[in-house]
Amino acid sequence: MDEAGGLKRMSTITNISFRALLVAGVFALALTALFMRAAAPGITFALESDLNLTIGSNAFRNGIPVPGSTWTLKDLVPGTDKFFNLANVMPGDSGKATISMHVESRQSGAWLCLDFSSLQSDDNGVNEPEEDADPNGAASGELANEMEFFAWRDDGDDDFEAGEAPLFDGPQSASEALNEKTYAVADALSGSPVETGGTRAIGIAWCAGNLEVNLGTAQLSCDAGALGNEAQTDSLSVDVSIRAALEREQPTFTCSGEVVDGRGRPERPERPERPTR
Length: 277
Prior knowledge:
Layout: H1 3-14, E1 20-30, E2 51-61, E3 64-65, E4 71-74, E5 84-86, E6 94-105, E7 110-122, H2 128-133, H3 143-146, E8 148-154, E9 172-173, H4 174-177, E10 181-186, E11 199-207, E12 210-214, E13 219-223, E14 235-246
Parallel strand pairs: 1-5
Antiparallel strand pairs: 1-14, 2-3, 2-4, 2-6, 6-11, 7-10, 7-14, 8-9, 8-11, 12-13
């Protein structure tokens, strides 16, 4: 993809700022068959505003590192790099990834946003156990409703710890947490921008079943019993995008597009004047 093509896609997807940076990867999660989106986006652009973003990933499945989804800070490779790329996921399997975002700019720090889009859950045919549990299974995949996720702002050590802020109320199913959703890693409503040369990280945990999170003790557990035969042969994929915008150019930038005042608070409409008596 050339730079002009990338900028055109950027303006279509973000619809927030001409001077924004877009990189993207793909989660690919499957119960017995991997679904992978063709021509997946995943490139880093250095724009005229002198903003460069590199991405690192550190992934685990059942406590074992996943080499194909682990790399040091770099520009993402289109159609190749995927934060999760897992086949033959079984009930009770669990995993996590830490995604690191490193900002370089000669002008200022940057705001960062995490976007999930194009969630797709497919049935990929029906086997005998699935047909018994889900007679209408060929119509749609159930994995998006039965696989659960939890995300948090990580300090970079790959572990959820007491006091680290959840990125969304969770845990939630993929259809709730990853379906056309935007989360602020750093914007004018959620904290300070990432300084040039600085790195922010978010952790994402998943469970093939019911994911339980104890915020007080920071314990995560996965209950296999919540994932039934109706999800057999199903697959799940979702596009993941990371947006960045320069703080100097947009000091009140928000990932949602909500307008805030100069002190980082949502602007409220002016109250109508009370009639005089």
